[in-house]
Specification:
alpha+beta, elongated
C-alpha cells in the first residue's frame, strides 16, 4: 500500500532569506529612484547638450534636404518618362492600325499576303529576323515594320528605366522618412532636457538667446570688404532683408529658413540658381581657403562634413540661419561651433 506523505514545507530560514532578498531589491530600486534627482544636470550642462543635439539635428536636416531634393527630381523624371511612354504607345497603336489598313486593302484585292499576316503577328522582331521574307515585301511595308520594331524597343527601354527610377524613388522616400524622424528625435531630446530645468533656469537661457538674436540682427561693423560680384552683393542684400526670420529645418523662405535654405533663396533673388544643400553648394564655383581672401556674398562652409553654410558679411562675420531656436543673424566666424573649412565664390 502506497504511503501518503505531506508535501515538504519551506523552512523558516528559507522564507526569511527570500523575504530579505525581496526587501533588498525594493530598497535598491528606491535608492536608484531617489538618486535620479541628485543626477540632475545643471543649466550650463543642459545648454551644452542641447547645443550638441541642435548641431546633430542640423546635420540630419541637410541629409533630409538632399533626400527631399532627390525625391522631387525623380518624381519629375518619372513623370516625363511616363508621358513619353503614353505618347509612344499611341504612336505604336497608329502604326499597327496602318498595318491593319494595309491588310484590309490586300484582302479586298484578293487575299492577305503571307508577309502581311506576319506584320500583324505579336512578334514582328521574329519576322524581321527571317531575312528571306523581306524580298516578299514592298519598301513601304519594310519601313512600316521597322518603325514598329523601333518603337517597341524604345518603349521597352523607357519602361525599364521607369521601373528602376521607381525603385530608387521608393528607397529615397524611405531615407527621407528616416532623416525626418532623426531630426524630430534630436529636437525632442533637446526639448526634454530643457524641460528638466527649473522655470527660472529656462527663463535665463531664453533671455540669453533673445539677447544674442537682438544684438546680431542689428547693423554690425562689417568693415569695408568688397562684394565678390554684383550678383553676390544682390544675394547678400536679399539675405539682409531676412534678418530676424526664424530657423526652421527644411525651410527655404521667404519667412523661415534653414542654413542652406537661406543661401539658396538669397542667390535665387539675385537671379542665380544654386543647389539646395550645403554639401552640393560646396561643389560649385571657386573654392577659397584663406579667410582673408573672402568677399561679401561668398558662401562659407563649416564643420568637417560641410553641414553648415552662410554668406560672408565682411570683418570676420557671416550672415546665416544658425540652428533651431535662433533667427537669421550676423555672427562671428569664431563662434560657429565648428571650424571654417573654405569659401566658395559663386
Amino acid at each position: 500500500m502506497a504511503s501518503h506523505r505531506r508535501p515538504k514545507q519551506p523552512s523558516r530560514t528559507r522564507v526569511t532569506v527570500l523575504t530579505t532578498a525581496a526587501a533588498a531589491a525594493v530598497a535598491l530600486s528606491a535608492n536608484a529612484a531617489n538618486a535620479a534627482p541628485s543626477e540632475k544636470l545643471g543649466k550650463d550642462e543642459v545648454k551644452a547638450k542641447v547645443d550638441k543635439l541642435y548641431e546633430q539635428a542640423e546635420q540630419a536636416t541637410e541629409k533630409y534636404n538632399g533626400a527631399k531634393e532627390k525625391q522631387q527630381k525623380l518624381q519629375k523624371e518619372i513623370s516625363t518618362i511616363q508621358d513619353n511612354v503614353a505618347r509612344g504607345q499611341e504612336e505604336l497603336n497608329k502604326l499597327r492600325d496602318g498595318l491593319g489598313s494595309l491588310a484590309t486593302a490586300q484582302y479586298r484585292s484578293g487575299g492577305i499576303d503571307s508577309s502581311v499576316q506576319l506584320f500583324l503577328s505579336s512578334d514582328p522582331d521574329d519576322f524581321l529576323d527571317k531575312a528571306s521574307t523581306l524580298d516578299q515585301l514592298s519598301s513601304q511595308q519594310v519601313d512600316a515594320l521597322k518603325k514598329i520594331q523601333d518603337k517597341q524597343r524604345e518603349l521597352a527601354q523607357e519602361r525599364a528605366e521607369a521601373t528602376e527610377k521607381l525603385k530608387d524613388l521608393s528607397a529615397t522616400r524611405t531615407e527621407l522618412g528616416n532623416k525626418k524622424k532623426e531630426v524630430q528625435n534630436k529636437l525632442a531630446e533637446a526639448q526634454r532636457l530643457l524641460n528638466s530645468l527649473t522655470a527660472k533656469e529656462k527663463a535665463q537661457l531664453a533671455e540669453k538667446e533673445q539677447r544674442a538674436n537682438r544684438s546680431s540682427t542689428e547693423r554690425v561693423d562689417l568693415g569695408d570688404a568688397p562684394p565678390a560680384s554684383g550678383r553676390a552683393q544682390a544675394a547678400f542684400s536679399a539675405a539682409q532683408t531676412r534678418l530676424g526670420s526664424p530657423y526652421v529645418y527644411g525651410a527655404t523662405g521667404p519667412s523661415s529658413f534653414d542654413c542652406s535654405g537661406l543661401t539658396s533663396w538669397a542667390y535665387a533673388q539675385a537671379g542665380v540658381s544654386i543647389p539646395r544643400t550645403s554639401e552640393a553648394q560646396a561643389q560649385i564655383g571657386t573654392k577659397i581657403y584663406n579667410q582673408s581672401d573672402l568677399k561679401v556674398g561668398d558662401l562659407v562652409f563649416f564643420f568637417n562634413d560641410i553641414h553648415h553654410v552662410g554668406l560672408y558679411a565682411g570683418n570676420g562675420q557671416i550672415l546665416h540661419a544658425p540652428r533651431t531656436g535662433t533667427v537669421v543673424r550676423y555672427e562671428s566666424m569664431t563662434t560657429i561651433g565648428g571650424p571654417f573649412m573654405f569659401g566658395v565664390r559663386v
